[in-house]
């Protein structure tokens, strides 16, 4: 029997062979089978045992070949799965260009994300940074005081979206007074660039201006 294979099957359609043996013969046959599957290379003690064992031996060999094929398929599938996980991990790591930790955290992960520096700049895009700062201020006024770690987690999550999508989602939260950011789907696609176009509500600009003016007071 192959290494790590701990079992074998005796089939019910072999019953006719066993019925033709007396108890002593059946006992010698089962002992011979057990010795064979444990790789002891036994020699049949008599002609009856040798004759009765032949069809059982053929089935055992067939099952062993099937088991080895299954094990090989599982190994290949496991190797392929490991390679996919490795590629995915490499892809994620490639998106993180550099990270610096010194009192506050500054991580360059894309063209528009800078995770919290001492100036309170969260993004390199001025409009996105302004909207995000206003949203945090609104949350604070509503009693939702976020920790630096919490803000960092939000900003890091936003790196996987475009600047335009992030701006629209923050504006959406500001207009509705939401304390969390929710993903939205693009309404249209630019035919030339084939990029999504996020259509924010028309009233959002007024809401932003009113909120900005209120905070200046």
Structure in a nutshell:
The chain is mostly helical.
Name the strands of the widest sheet in spatial order. Answer: 1-2
Q: Residue-averaged pLDDT, rounded?
A: 77
If helices are DSSP runs of H or I spanning 4 or more residues, what is the number of helices?
Answer: 7
Largest sheet: 2 strands, antiparallel
Order of helices and strands: HHHEEHHHEEH
Uncertain runs? 96-118
Percent helix, as a range, is: 55-70%
Fraction of residues in β-strands: 5-15%
Principal-axes shape call: rod-shaped
- Compute the number of strand runs: 4
Class per helix and strand makeup: mainly alpha
| CA(first)-CA(last) distance | 84 Å
Tally of domains: 2
How large is the radius of gyration?
35 Å
């Amino acid at each position: 029997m192959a290494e790590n294979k701990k079992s074998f099957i005796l089939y019910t359609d072999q019953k006719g062979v066993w019925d033709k043996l007396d108890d002593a013969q059946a006992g010698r046959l089962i002992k011979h089978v057990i010795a064979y599957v444990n790789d002891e290379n036994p020699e049949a003690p008599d002609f009856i045992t040798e004759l009765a064992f032949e069809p059982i031996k053929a089935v055992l060999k067939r099952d062993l070949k099937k088991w080895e094929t299954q094990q090989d398929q599982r190994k290949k599938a496991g190797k392929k799965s490991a390679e996919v996980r490795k590629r995915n991990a490499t892809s994620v790591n490639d998106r993180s260009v550099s990270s610096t930790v010194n009192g506050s955290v500054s991580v360059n992960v894309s063209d528009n994300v800078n995770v919290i520096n001492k100036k309170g700049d969260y993004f390199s895009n001025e409009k996105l940074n302004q909207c995000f700062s206003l949203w945090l201020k609104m949350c604070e006024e509503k009693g939702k005081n976020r920790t630096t770690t919490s803000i960092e987690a939000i900003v890091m999550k936003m790196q996987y979206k475009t600047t335009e999508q992030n701006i629209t989602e923050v504006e959406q939260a500001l207009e509705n007074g939401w304390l969390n950011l929710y993903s939205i789907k693009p309404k249209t696609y630019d035919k030339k660039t084939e990029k999504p176009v996020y259509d924010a509500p028309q009233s959002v600009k007024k809401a932003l201006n009113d909120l900005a003016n209120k905070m200046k007071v």
